[in-house]
Design goal:
With 215 residues, the chain is mostly beta strands. The chain has 2 domains: 128 residues, Bromo adjacent homology (BAH) domain (SH3 type barrels, Roll); 61 residues, Herpes Virus-1. It has a 6-stranded mixed barrel with strand order 4-5-6-7-9-8. A two-stranded antiparallel ribbon has the order 2-3. Bound molecules: zinc ion (2 copies). The site of one zinc ion has 9 residues, from helix 3.
Length: 215
Amino acid sequence: MAKSRHGRRELHSYTIRGMYTMNRTVRAGDAVFMRAPETEKDPYVAIIQKIEADNRNNVNVHVRWYYRPEETKRGRQRFHGIRELMLSDHYDVQSAETIERKVTVHTFKDYTELKFISPTDLYWRFEYNAKTGACKPGRVEVFCKCRMPYNPDHYFMLQCDKCNEWFHPRCVGMSNGEANKLDTYVCENCESGKRVRKRPSQRSASQVGPKRQKT
Ligand SMILES: [Zn+2]
Ligand SMILES: [Zn+2]
């Protein structure tokens, strides 16, 4: 174990104290919930960079924060999923005692492919600059009349049989139940003979396509 100038020792792992008996060992690279100082708030989410003990055996973790969309300058947008985080450039040192439990922060693509989602499954798709409020990538693929990026919480979408564009049932005046009963769907633009304008140059390479096919 490495010893630093201030008598700090780097630790390979830390065992979370508390009520969760499973999976309590955390290491660098793990994502965790950390207690927020205001108890009514959702826990903070961080990825552990380094674990250190000082000469009094206080354990501190060096972390990189994930921000929840509502904590960013632009706030929560309609396309942000309930389990969405942003990977910030904000680093910090916190007491290991504030760690509540281990979580998994998936990439967006991996998250959309999960068969089962547990309360500790979260995801990120944007990086966030905490000083400027900028998000990366600045542009992602958008869908529907509302021209919104894909929100995995609203995964039920209709695909037009002619132009292959995806639509939220609500945005085309249907309930999910009504949409589910359709065998085929042709969007307004295709019905009226108008071609949907697609601007491929605005689409980023990141795959944010809906996974669920219409049934
Ligand atoms: Zn829409
Ligand atoms: Zn269409």
